[in-house]
């Protein structure tokens, strides 16, 4: 009898506990993936013995007949011989790899081969099924379909569900999960009453209310900011500021508006390519611009551009499909079906964006932030009212040009405000000729305004950097009788000129080479610039004549023409002097001041593709290096994932549509798993970031598919999905763990009890501010700078950055609005496991360290929260026990036990004398938040602050 046969006989004697039917995906693939595929997988460059074990063809080798597995005959299969041998030179896996198959694993492999060695499509790549919820023995427990799947697993384990959580615990869990904020005492009271009448209806109504709260979007947006690697700086050693926070507000609004998830993905991946894309759809593409920018001198822009494109590809696929495509950047993926060539074919879709690692972050788009609509309406209404009061005979009369000509193909178009916009070609040295009916009455001067425009990147000029160099201005009167007359300027003034490029240079008889130029300051170029050109003497234009203005741009630099201009005339005397002195009448001055108060757009980096004639070629990059280009490739999907539909565009929009297509099984599975993980603490697939061969298997595969199918069927409705999950009996269980449950379900993967785990960094902070009454619930807005122990951040070559703490209400805004500097995130967030924002992160890992307690005891925000809570406790009663109970009600929404109250009373009584004997220390600890206290109250408030500080550090407070 052969050694292999003898081993197999022994295995068969002990295999009574093995499954009747072997599942390749759930029993065999994990063994091969962990122990074999790294050396015998898809990557030909690292494949040993030219043997593939990840495909049926690879193990049976039908072409050569040199099979390592003979289906149905494990005793004749070389595979089993190498697994079972005792020879250290032949045994697989090799001893030096540190892996050794267990007897059970070997028995499974033997049974699999005996049953035919059938291979299956990886479970996550298979179409989403729509299984029927299973029947369960305890049919009274389920509240919805989710519970049938959960209970079926529990019954297999011999476990029963835990009794429901009490109403206070349940509402707190709901509020923290859906909004990131605790409920108020009034909300608790209302919920308890409703829960007594009809528990399930009370939960459903509370869920609806919380999902409709603006706080919902702020809370759930934080999850997406991790994924999108959102930060307020560009990263790398310089880590300079980047204005991209309007995109963060877009995400918050998208969640609050319950934007369908498929639309949410499409707009971020390719909103700019949608037909008639709106400003908000273009803003959504800032998702791609959250990549790092290297502004250090001497770096290669192309190198870091390609790094950014690879990051976009990786982030897009990982965030939606849960696959680690970047493993194929340097070689074929060792585990998942993505070859080196296919990686760069997919990369080609993202390789046509116009950004190029430039310091100015172009292309950028001006965006009016959310939340300013009412203020803008009020100011504009006031301006309109004042404008009606301005003297009808305004000093300046805007010329209405009806004939416009630009040389060399420049297109000139009149705008509603009387300005003229240039578009089309941008030649080296153009001239603009603008003709309008002559104004009535005398003319003493011409006013020229250079106006920033969106079409020119909000610059005043058409040059790539926005500069304007105007070399000559001429004014021609064309009379009705066919004669014409040039009118000469004698004086010119401007509100801004670049040194040696004064406005006076444009009014000579012949143009001067250097002309009038605006300063090469990026922000200055975005400000409106005005010049007044005074005539030698006022002229009265002939009736029915026309006035022609000629603007010549023939400076020392090419393509420096104006993007948008407006011209006006006046009859006032000494117009240049009055312009210099800014002698506006009072109403006009008031209008000017109001215009300064109008909210201004923020210039946000967005995604645009290059014009068709400037599209890049894409090549393989040998070992991932941009300097070692291989063969040219065209955009395409990896073969394992099919092809784009025939009518889909071959660009990012086509990829975006494919990501959320009905036949893409990964996107809905990954999405519902992510929501499950946020509510229950661990995903149905624990490796949220990896649904590929190396990822963990789903604990409830049928439930995952049922949820994914329903998610798509209900229109990718994110709020509906969350409501379904939180109204399940599984979610509403109490969180107490019995020894039996801890033994059979130690990590609560199978939901034998309700979820209980520490809150996220943002919620830890926001909850403390909320219960203390300090939280500023203002929605949207620019980043804020709450207190931090680190006031100065060192940059490698750009000097230090000073953290200037916000004052007033901004100090207590929600954590999502905190300025996030990539190289130095706020210590509180870093300590409580906020993800790095350098790369896409789908799953935060919770840690428990002494630093976390140190932070919640001593960080300024928690001390100030304790100070404010102490004042609430002091005002509630003159009785110490009642004050302590008020603290418990605010913090835990219920009263403390007698032992808890006794312990805190003892702490108060121990602490009070210290502060009674030291007024300065008492005032220092009592603080001034939200208001100072009197000398008489200082010691008591200080002692209560110590008590409140302890309450804010209770485990029950820091966990849900």
Automatic annotation (TrEMBL):
SUPFAM superfamilies listed in its UniProt record: Cytochrome c (SSF46626)
GO MF entries: electron transfer activity; heme binding
Cytochrome C Planctomycete-type domain mapped to chain residues: 36-96
Domain DUF1553: start-end pairs: 651-907
Keyword Signal: yes
Cited InterPro entries: Cyt_c-like_dom_sf, Cyt_c_Planctomycete-type, DUF1549, DUF1553
Signal sequence range: 1-19
Cell membrane recorded as keyword: no
All copies of domain DUF1549, residue ranges: 145-354
Keyword terms, alphabetized: Signal
Designated name of the protein: PSD1 domain-containing protein
